[in-house]
Amino acid sequence: MQTTAIINHISHWLKSYAQNAGVKGFVIGISGGIDSAVTSTLAAKTGLPLLCVELPIHQNKIQVERGLKHIAWLKENFDNVSSVELQLSSVFDSFTSQLPENETQNELALVNTRARLRMTTLYYFAQSNQSLVLGTGNKVEDFGIGFFTKYGDGGVDISPIADLLKSETYALGKILGINNEIITAAPTDGLWGDEKTDEEQIGASYAELEWAMAFDGDKNAITAREKQVLQIYTKLNQANQHKMHAIPVCTIPQNLK
Hints:
This protein is an alpha/beta fold. It is built from twelve helices and four strands; from the N terminus they run αβαβαβααβααααααα.
């Protein structure tokens, strides 16, 4: 992989897209993970204004600190970077307190609510700054298993790294000089109270999922674990197809109009 060439390609693509769209710059949510770190650095390299937004909701302190360190590093190296931090914990708590008393609270629905609150906040800053919201999903998440919240972290304007596998994103991060704490941290979406890692949620590592995504061999010639991973990948891919395609539109026949 021509890592440096890819870095330049993405940065040039971002700048060209923004200029053609007539916007001033970009807004991105910083999580303390590799995907947002790489994406924000690629955007910073465009020279256009980049607003980094930290949006903790009952967040693990270590994750927040990693994100803030990355933002500080960006500011030290790029004059076009600014930041803001909004504590959304009270907003989330206020929402949950308004749910009907007889409502059995669905944990996954509340997890996705966190992501959607963040999306709403990012779009506030994007509109007020005439900017685009940057997506941080990689290829495995966005087009392999649909590991994102619909209209949450999946609610973006453009996706700079969605054609890169997780391993390729790490490769870019090393060349870009991303903090080693971020590179070595276990990937997590940071949406669960018990701080589940992505692997714990999915049941497979990104390396395994990349293998499954590319698999086109004899299923009878693979190991028991590989069969399990392939089953996990196939199940999630099929279940989350609704996230990967445009919203279905009911077309009305002309004779009914």
